[in-house]
Amino acid sequence: MTQTTDPKYERSNHPVQTKDLIISAKGLRKSFGKFTAVQDVDLDVYEGEILGLLGPNGAGKTTLISMLTGVLKPDSGQATICGYDLHKDLHKIKRKVSLVPQHLAIYLELNAYENLNFFANLYGLKGKEKKERIDEALEIAQLTDQATKKVEHFSGGMKRRLNLAIGLLNHPKVIFFDEPTVGVDPQSRSHIFKSIQYLVKELKMSVIYTTHYMEEAETLCHRVAIYDQGKVLDLDDTDALLAKHGQKQLEIRVDAMDDQLIQAIEKLKHVDSVHYVDQTLVIHAHDLIKTTEVVLRMIQENQLEVKTFNVRESDLEDVFLKLTGRKLRN
Amino acid sequence: MNIWHIAMKDIRIFLRDIPGLIYLILTPIIVIAIASFALSGIFADDEVERFSIPLVVEDEGELTNQLVDVLQETSVLKIIKTTKDGKQITRQEAEKLVPEYKAAIVIPDGFSDNVAQGELAELIVMSDPADRVIPGVVHDILSQYTAKLSMQSVTNEVAIEALMHITELSKAVHGVELDPTKEIQSVQEKSEYYVENPPIQVVTNVVQGNDEARETTPFESNVPGYAVMFVLLGTTAAASSLLDERERGTLGKLQTLPITRMSILSGKMLANFTTALFQMFVLFTVGHFVFQMWLGPSILGLVLLIVATAFAATGMAMLIASVCKTRAQASGISLLIVLSMSALGGSWWPLYIVPDWLQTVAHVTLTAWAMSGFNNLLVYGQGFTSILTSITVLFSMGILFLILSVRFFRFN
Question: Could you tell me which residue ranges the ABC transporter domain spans (chain A) (predicted)?
């Protein structure tokens, strides 16, 4: 694979390769004591697609993929992955899937080659095949020149890339990326994106990508599941999600708003929804011009100062806000 | 094979951890050397550390001269009679020296005369209230001497009194006047002889299992004692790497691979067991070749006992790792358990010096069983059969600990 270190990357606009299901989950549920982390989730993932799980920290994304990778046993529900039953054929599933975890699952005391060799051994790889897989993973992660360097001397980005390389050793059909860009510099982030696109386009892998970064989901994923409090609130491609839940919105920055005024705005004739987040009033309305005029007057009458206001198109962040009442990064 | 790969990874990491290796190997060697050389006087027959004791001589009688000779010949005391400028130490000067030397002896004026006349004669021991050992030793030595003197004095007095009585009776009843001078002299000579050669004596015979006459050194008990303690500390630290892997996320990653959870735990156990064996063999090798520690009459027995101890230590370490949530928690608990077991189980001192009930309690620890076996082999020179119980109990403990650790370990 030939890659540049240009931090720019292209949007994943290539089509999904087939309409064959690679993952089909029904009613997956997982609780820890009284807390239910995943609530009866249904999820279909198609071969060759990048599916984004977009949700804030603590939404239950990691728990969901932990169940799909065999780390956690579901309390209830069914799933078929690569044609194998999650409950009956977990060992076979583990040969077909891979996880690139949020935490760096690497041994700092070993060098990059030794890390890859250790995991390759556990995948049962031997001889020439093992060497080829390790070389390929090092090349994709652009770590060939650093293979014998102790990992504790790696930069954060290099460690992330090694984390990714380990996930490629078994040539998985499905690869799960759990927040792979947290704490990563722009250059390594770009490299990770390009690698994911390469895996899907050239190596025909399917990717489940969890993130709380709206831009990543919009740019990288063919379809996005809006995920919060252990539930998939909606799942579709970005355009469809925006068409369903997005609309032009009015944003007015006001330093202080009292609840009474917000309630009064909510009751206005053309207003669909009102949220007051980060000193900004976000209003969705089917007649934005009339609503703008009325709301500005109400603010003025309450002797509040309008710092800024603008009207813009919705993005996935707005869709999330509309579906959950919360921002992605609180 | 997965077990092997996991174990090899841990062993590779272990061998690269130089500070860790120093802690596991060098620290016990230093501690063994210090503890053994410090106690060498207790075991050696020749050189004994002597206590320096100031002596105040106020009496000039013959008995005082004898007493001073006796004190100077004592193997545990080094008598200081004069000050730096060569003058006799006075009672006032001795009082000032007591905090430094912990005790001083005073032979008061008239001591010899008082003994000769059968009157109360005192020897004074000045003691430092902060030290009970040295004044106690000095007191015991003086008591032994005064007991002999008292016995001689009482014997003479009773015998002479009896002879005088017989002489008086003979004169009164038979009108014959006897001269008891020769008998009195004979009584005095005999009493002196028996003081020097008491008719009842205590003889110590060192009993050893082998025919070879061998002198026991502190290393035969200290090397196994500290080896067991440091192996326990080492294995508990190594087993805690499981918790490290859980905290770092590598354990989660391992669970996504096509290997069983049992393989992961077994790999960790194998690495810990290998580390413990390595540590024990290095310590025993150093003990033998550097400190001339005797390896006992059965090398096979010693090797089996080392393997059994390492196995039980591995099991206990895995159990601690399985019930603790974090590495910090495991470190604290391990230290508490290992130090308690070492004190209770006989790593630091022989078990027979503690009360019977404590000896019984001690045998819930693997340290007590291991030390019992090592002492049978290396200190008492007993053969292979003497350690069979220890080996059986240690292997059983190891198996039980490992079963419990598999049962209780939380992967997530």
Answer: 16-254
Q: Domains (ranges, CATH) in chain A?
A: 21-243 (3.40.50.300), 247-313 (3.30.70.100)
Confidence check: pLDDT of A29 > 90: yes
Read off the amino acid at residue B194. Y
Give the B window 382-411 contacts with A, CB below 8 Å. 411
pLDDT digits 0-9 by tens, B160-187: 888 888 888 888 888 877 788 888 888 8
**Residue-range domains of chain B with CATH:** 2-40+219-408 (no CATH), 51-196 (3.40.1710)
Nearest to B255 among A71, A106, A107 (CB): A71
Comparing B83 with A153, the larger pLDDT belongs to A153
The crossing angle, in degrees rounded to 10, of helices B299-323 and B219-239 is 30
Taking the whole predicted model, whether its pTM rises above 0.90 is answered as no
Give dist(CA A275, CA A282) in Å, integer: 5
User: With pLDDT > 70 as the criterion, what percentage of chain A qualifies?
Assistant: 94
Query: With 80 as the cut, is the pLDDT of residue B46 above it?
Result: no
The confidence score (pLDDT) of residue A27 equals 93
Q: Nearest C-alpha of chain B: how many angstroms from A27?
A: 22
**Sheet order of strands, A223-228 included:** A97-100, A174-178, A206-211, A50-54, A223-228, A231-236
User: pLDDT band for position B246 (50/70/90)?
Assistant: confident
Task: Choose the mutation target among B8, B16, B253 for the interface with A, i.e. most A CBs under 10 Å.
Answer: B253
Tokens of A17: 């390769």
Locate all alpha helices (DSSP H) within B197-298, ordered by sequence: 219-239, 241-248, 250-255, 261-289
* Under 8 Å between Cβ of B105 and B54: yes
Beta bridge partners of B308: none
Of A70, A102, A109, nearest to B16 by CB-CB distance is A109
Rounded to two decimals, the ipTM of the complex is: 0.78
pLDDT at A18: 58
SS3 content of chain B, % helix, strand, coil (to 5): 70, 5, 25
CA–CA gap between residue B330 and residue B318 (Å, rounded): 10
The three-class DSSP label of residue A279 is coil
Task: Please check the confidence at residue A2 and state whether its pLDDT lies above 80.
Answer: no
Question: Which of A30, A31, A71 is the best residue to mutate to test the B interface, defined by the most B CB atoms within 10 Å of its own CB?
Answer: A71
- Encode pLDDT of A180-194 as tens digits: 888 788 888 888 888
Distance from C-alpha of B328 to C-alpha of B13, rounded to nearest angstrom: 20
pLDDT at A4 over 50: no
Contact A9, A219 (CB under 8 A): yes
Q: How confident is the model at residue A10 (pLDDT cuts 50, 70, 90)?
A: low
- CA dist B358 and B370 (Å) reads 16
A206 within 8 A of A52, measured Cβ to Cβ: no
Q: Do A114 and B12 touch (CB under 8 A)?
A: yes
pLDDT in the model for residue A132: 94
d(CA B396, CA B309): 11
- Average pLDDT (B201-211) is 62
pLDDT at A5: 37
Residue A81's DSSP bridge partners are A23, A84
A297, B4, B256, B258, B265 from B271: Cα distances, Å: 74, 9, 21, 21, 10
Find out whether B253 and A118 touch, Cβ atoms under 8 Å.
no
